[in-house]
Amino acid sequence: MVGCSAAEIVYVRRHKYSYRLGRQDLENPAAAYRRLRREMLAAERQVYVTARDTGEIDDEVLRRVLNELDLEEARLAARD
């Protein structure tokens, strides 16, 4: 691997080990971040809905928070 950049070396090694493990669906770091952030947003939504259902926050607060979460999710989708 003489003359290869660090990124190229990482790419080759990742694919080699992925192949050995039988994984062909290698996810790049940016895609992994977006996937994990979407999962976090879904969890956050559930927490806020539960807080509203138990009376900890009112509907107006829930709407504002869900709007912010929707905007963040839209920004993530624009990067796909």
Separation of the first and last Cα atoms = 31 Å
| SSE-based structural type | mainly alpha
Q: Count of DSSP E strands?
A: 0
Mean model confidence by pLDDT? 85
- Measured by DSSP, the beta-strand proportion falls in under 5%
Low-confidence stretches: none
State the helical fraction: over 70%
Globally, the shape reads elongated
Give the radius of gyration. Answer: 20 Å
Tell me about the largest β-sheet: none
Number of helices: 3
What is the element string, with H for helices and E for strands?
HHH
Descriptive notes:
The chain is built from three helices and no strands. The model has no long low-confidence stretch (mean pLDDT 85). By secondary structure, it is an all-alpha fold. It has one domain. Helix 2 runs antiparallel to helix 3. Helix content is 75%, strand content 0%.
